[in-house]
Amino acid sequence: DGYSDLSAYERKRLKNITENAKFFAALKLHESAARLNQLATKRQSHVTKRPKPKKVEDETARRRSMRLLRVEPLDIPLLETPARPGAEEYPQVPVGPLPMVPEDQADNSKWTEALLSTWMRISELKGDGADRDTPDVKRYQESLSSMVLSEENIRKVVKTRVCSMAIHPSESTILVAAGDKWGHIGLWNVSCRAEEGAHIFIPHSFQVNCMHFSPCNPAHLLSLSNDTLRCGDVTRAVFDEVCRSEENFSCFDFLEENASTAIVGHWDGDVAVVDRRTPGMSSELSADIGFRRTRTVHVHPVNKQYFLAAGSVDVCVFDVRYLKAKGNKPLSSLTGHTKSVASAYFSPVTGSRVVTVCADDKLRMFLFPCRHNNNTGRWLTRFRAIWDPKQEHCFLVGSMAQPRQIQVFQDTGKLLHSFCNVDCLGSVCSINVVHPSQNILVGGNSSGRLHVF
């Protein structure tokens, strides 16, 4: 038969294949029979070709990953997602002062006027200031438990990812400012509880990295973008330009209570001293502190000459009085970080403690580290752990845990409380701000939505 060199088993197998092929041929299953005949006559196997996939135009439209498409996440379905405004619709913000006119001025100028009037009115009232008598932990936990989130206190205030927030110190009205990735600033009068209580302004061309109401005059809102530091003055309804640079600003903090000077961090690692009283748009001093990147700077609450800088794996304390262009040495280095540091802040009353957030999934309270998932990825703003200005020993930070929550820790690393609401809070609040004297917490997520507890 031509197969005498095969074993008895192989000959039997081929005989079975041949008989099966004849059987299927008798049934006129031509395709199967031809295939079996091929197996019987050829000892080598052949790889069958896969059918060609259908052309894309023949298929129905499929849902695509917003992350893979590099589209900013929004709170509305993908099919309704608007495209990013083009350069024609949103040109670069011009240099110099800008009028405090919101994006939607043409439709509701009366509502905008009411919002700005409220900001001006509450800035004239002097509060009693924050309660510096730090309450005991039990009383503090009770006050946290009394804070709740309701649907009317949730609002989409800016169009995209929240990168910074500030809360007005007024004790009568809750006014929150949020800065997003596109350079927009949203102002929301939470106490208004009406649709017209929030408006968007466009004072920057790039993301708003940092914002503070002036501690001595809350009619001023200072905001820092990559290329400029501006002061929104509601009494004159203008966004003044304080400082401009091509070196990419990252953060700032006031060096004095009168907010006339500030320390400004740069993404390339340098820091600069800015004096708002001097003419011109340049800084007074630019200093190389030896960092590859500076993400946050924070001034000591008591001894204002000291400031904390954080970035890459570095967290160091410097004395602003001895800064020079090159060769700066830190007074102290807080070591132990193995990956990039997202933020570092002094405790609010004495400044004797520091809390840091690091990409190695640890929160460090010098000297009490605790485990915490800080892996926010590229689609969420990085966490920043902030101290409660009313409590020397406790701080707040966003969380990746389910259900979504904002966590409060003691400086020993003990979890004291988790702000959550399964019905109202379904996203990660990376950026948070706490009122300096009232039990009010605002959390901002990466679609521009604010949540007020």
From TrEMBL:
Recorded GO CC terms: nucleus
MF terms in GO: DNA binding
Keyword Flavoprotein belongs to the record: no
Superkingdom assignment: Eukaryota
SMART domains referenced in this protein's UniProt entry, alphabetically: WD40 (SM00320)
Range of residues in the leader sequence: none
Swiss-Prot/TrEMBL keywords: Repeat, WD repeat
InterPro entries: WD40/YVTN_repeat-like_dom_sf, WD40_repeat_dom_sf, WD40_rpt, WD_repeat_DNA-damage-binding
Record SUPFAM superfamilies: WD40 repeat-like
Region: Disordered, residue numbers: 40-62
Ranges annotated as biased composition (Basic residues): 43-53
The keyword Repeat is annotated on this UniProt entry: yes
A Gene Ontology biological process term: regulation of DNA damage checkpoint
Function: Specifically binds 5-hydroxymethylcytosine (5hmC), suggesting that it acts as a specific reader of 5hmC.
Family label: Belongs to the WD repeat DDB2/WDR76 family.
Subunit field text: Interacts with CUL4A and/or CUL4B.
Protein name: WD repeat-containing protein 76
Organism in which the protein naturally occurs: Callaeas wilsoni
Upper classification of the organism: Eukaryota, Metazoa, Chordata, Craniata, Vertebrata
